[in-house]
Amino acid sequence: MSPVNNLVLGANGQLGQALQQVWAASKVTAWDIEELDITRLEVVRKMLEQLRPCTVINAAAYTRVDDAETDWEAAFRVNALGPRNLALATGELGIPLVQISTDYVFDGKSTRPYHEFDRPNPLSVYGCSKWAGEEAVRAANPKHYIVRTAWLYHTAGKNFPSTICGLGRQGDVRVVNDQFGSPTYAPHLAAGIDRLLETQAYGTYHLAGAGGTSWYDFTCRLFQEVGIQSTVLPISSDQFPRPAARPPYGVLTTIQDPFILLPSWEEGVRAFANAWNQ
Ligand SMILES: NC(=O)c1ccc[n+]([C@@H]2O[C@H](COP(=O)([O-])OP(=O)(O)OC[C@H]3O[C@@H](n4cnc5c(N)ncnc54)[C@H](OP(=O)(O)O)[C@@H]3O)[C@@H](O)[C@H]2O)c1
């Protein structure tokens, strides 16, 4: 049997790095935009034809949610055309494709956690571009896993916990308490994707830290676990306006096989704090 060779795209990002940590070097090829720009269809086709990986995991994305409101063309190129290109190329070669998506495909009006078959209705350009990417993948490669995650963070990379812990070391912080979601520690998501690939049950999956919380409670737990003494002051979203609308309630749950469930968001915070404090 030939050795497994998974191809991770967006390798320098938070999830890209976590996936490389889950898989030994012998099991993964890791490329970022310097090696392969996913917006270039003919290059994508040529590179995949040459490499012939077992599975392609697309962790590459335009993730600057607020910038996307004005820079919409770039967001759609990377988040919609990129996955479309990958789905065409992998579909032609019969290779499974994992496309990472987001809770921002939902409008946040639900009063219970969103499952895989709830109807998307994105509020922002970023959410629209990610939803378009999902649809393109479904259309072009039947061997797809669409993995929606949320509030992703890692000790490597720019993200909310790293920023707020940095601010909390300098003094008190103000954090919104009326937006709810599922904080997801990237190494937990990477391990979940690894388990998912074993199933060969193609489809749409919600893989996020189990349970839901607000940014405010998330920060309180973070400070407690990391050992930051500063006060966390609750504020409303109106007091912290941003260019892109966020779903007020984006908690994700799954009705798929419990085998793929991720640890709770609290366990994610604990694991992050252990790594952060080293
Ligand atoms: N971060 C979150 O809170 C969150 C929440 C829900 C879902 N997600 C999804 O989860 C996935 C991983 O997110 P992440 O936080 O790990 O993202 P990230 O840290 O922003 O990493 C994305 C990587 O993709 C690269 N990239 C951008 N354009 C590219 C292109 N045309 N071709 C190849 N690579 C390109 C980026 O390079 P540059 O840095 O040079 O642009 C970056 O290295 C994404 O699909 C994202 O939409 C993220």
Describe this protein with a few key phrases.
single chain; alpha/beta; Rossmann fold; two-stranded parallel ribbon; 8 helices; 12 strands; globular
Question: Can you tell me the CATH superfamily?
Answer: NAD(P)-binding Rossmann-like Domain
Output the CATH class name: Alpha Beta
Tell me the Rg in angstroms: 18 Å
Bound molecules: NADP nicotinamide-adenine-dinucleotide phosphate
What is the subunit arrangement here? single chain
Please identify, by name, the CATH architecture. 3-Layer(aba) Sandwich
Report the major sheet.
Answer: 6 strands, parallel
Tell me how many strands there are: 12
Quote the beta fraction: 15-25%
The CA-CA distance between the termini, in Å, is 40 Å
| Apparent shape | globular
- Specify the structural class: alpha/beta
Biggest β-sheet: strands ordered side by side in the sheet: 2-1-3-4-5-10
**Helix share bin:** 25-40%
* Number of DSSP helical runs: 8
CATH topology: Rossmann fold
Mean pLDDT value: 95
Structure commentary:
- This protein is α/β, with parallel strands linked by helices.
- The chain has a single domain, classed as Rossmann fold.
- Helices cover 38% and strands 16% of the residues.
- It has 8 helices and 12 strands.
- It has helices at 14-22, 41-51, 72-93, 125-140, 160-168, 186-199, 215-226, 265-276; strands at 6-9, 28-31, 55-58, 97-102, 144-149, 152-153, 173-176, 180-181, 184-185, 203-206, 213-214, 232-235.
- A 6-stranded parallel sheet has the order 2-1-3-4-5-10, with helices on both faces. A two-stranded parallel ribbon has the order 6-9. The protein has a two-stranded parallel ribbon with strand order 7-12.
- Helix 2 (41-51) packs parallel to helix 3 (72-93).
- The mean pLDDT is 95.
